[in-house]
Amino acid sequence: MSSSTGPSVAIVGTGFGGIGMALELKRAGLDDFVILEKGDDIGGVWRENTYPGAACDIPSPYYSFSTEPNPAWSSRFSPQGEIKEYMRRVVNDNDLMPHIRFGAEVTSATFDEAHAQWRLATDTGEEFTADVFVPATGQLSRPALPHIEGIETFRGPSFHSAEWDHSVDLRGKRVAVIGTGASAVQFVPAIQPDVEHMTVFQRSAPWVLPRPEVVYKQWHHTMFRKLPFTRVAERFAFWLLCEVLALALVDVPKMRPLFAAIARFHLRRQVPDRRLRAKLTPDYEPGCKRGLFSGDYYPALGRPNVHLETTGIERIEPEGVRTTDGTLHRADVIIYGTGFKTSEFLGPMAVHGLDGRKLADEWSEGAHAYLGMTVPGFPNMFLMYGPNTNLGVGSIIYMLECQARYIGKAVRLLARDGARAMDVKEDVARRFDQRLQSRLNRSVWTLCSSWYRNEHGRITNNWPGTVSSYRLATRTLDPDDYRLLDREEAA
Ligand code: NAP
């Protein structure tokens, strides 16, 4: 790739991040970009997660691009297929498809100092060069299987929720589900009516809030089309609600008991059985792990063919799951709703910056990036949904739009100033990280273990605040935060 009009850009991934970045470049009239996608279709996590019941648990009017409204969502919490179709429509409407190269998994990215360009290699041996490198591979793209002894000995089918094996017929089967996070609370109620018996293994009880579902009728769609402010008002209402909830996570801990009370009320209303309710009552601060929104999870657990097991798992055997009390829970199928490898970020991709430094070494104690996007020594690399940009509650698409705008500004700056590369200054990145970590140390996420923290106890995933505060932090790009390298310097 090369351009006479501006820097060329290589984006990795066609999830909301990659598409959002491409939209921003298109809008700015910057057409010299390619999107490399390992799969054969667009969609990121919304392509991969096809488990029964998969849906967004943030309302779609808010969980969508601000510039690409959809008045036709079938329901407020739209299902996976519809979200993927929405993404496809955005790609087609904005003529992004010609920019996408499918079947191109980037295995390494190296900054070529002599030419101030990134060289990307794919698993098929192809090479791409670009001035700007935007990995948009997300935090939740690589499924994590638990480290449980004997996991490989199970004799029936077993799979992870993000790699659902649709060829396995669950009807009339005894199913073991391990994990009770955001994915499990969606697929457990969806498969419960089909299975003969289901044992759900819960290590810690999640906080569950009601999900204010609305199935939109024809009149809603007409109203959203003819009176767009009604659609905007709904988006605004959920933005505001999430902002208030986000305050409780870091700045206003006094609000947490209120959310705990709402969740307990929800539990009491939906689970009449005292013993089951006791098992389902969380023993940690609300918000410490991701809060869940569901109206059908608790009722599913109360069905006669479901058993919630809270005794720890000792090992997996050919016949099922053995708990530490010696009981063997026989199963025909095991489903792992055990989450993702969330702390490795770019993961298996080998990324080398200035002087051959490795990103994996820079991040050996935990990933960090200035504003979640740039890392000293890795010029012209801008991450989307990078370290500390996940939300405890809120729409990640809002965060991605902030990042796309910021990166768009960087690309325009490079085009305008004739600089070939920009490298965030060490001291700027260090001060930012110190401020961030000191805020994070006051957050609710320090109070338990979750996928937000790595094995060193560092919170690598979450943004400590509201989305508005992130918007404010990324609204302008201060060129003084960066060393601008011209062609000769970079060489
Ligand atoms: P998760 O939230 O990380 O949950 C993993 C579950 O597996 C937890 O209950 C965990 O227990 C359990 N677990 C892990 N290892 C275990 C082991 N060795 N033994 C027993 N239990 C084990 O994963 P997820 O449900 O896939 O969700 C991941 C993230 O994806 C969510 O937080 C959310 O951000 C996103 N998501 C979003 C939506 C949406 O609607 N937008 C839907 C699904 C997922 P502990 O809690 O005790 O660790």
Automatic annotation (TrEMBL):
<dbReference type="InterPro" id="IPR051209">
    <property type="entry name" value="FAD-bind_Monooxygenase_sf"/>
</dbReference>
<dbReference type="InterPro" id="IPR036188">
    <property type="entry name" value="FAD/NAD-bd_sf"/>
</dbReference>
<dbReference type="Pfam" id="PF13738">
    <property type="entry name" value="Pyr_redox_3"/>
</dbReference>
<keyword id="KW-0503">Monooxygenase</keyword>
<protein>
    <submittedName>
        <fullName>Flavin-containing monooxygenase</fullName>
        <ecNumber>1.14.13.-</ecNumber>
    </submittedName>
</protein>
<keyword id="KW-0560">Oxidoreductase</keyword>
<dbReference type="GO" id="GO:0004497">
    <property type="term" value="F:monooxygenase activity"/>
</dbReference>
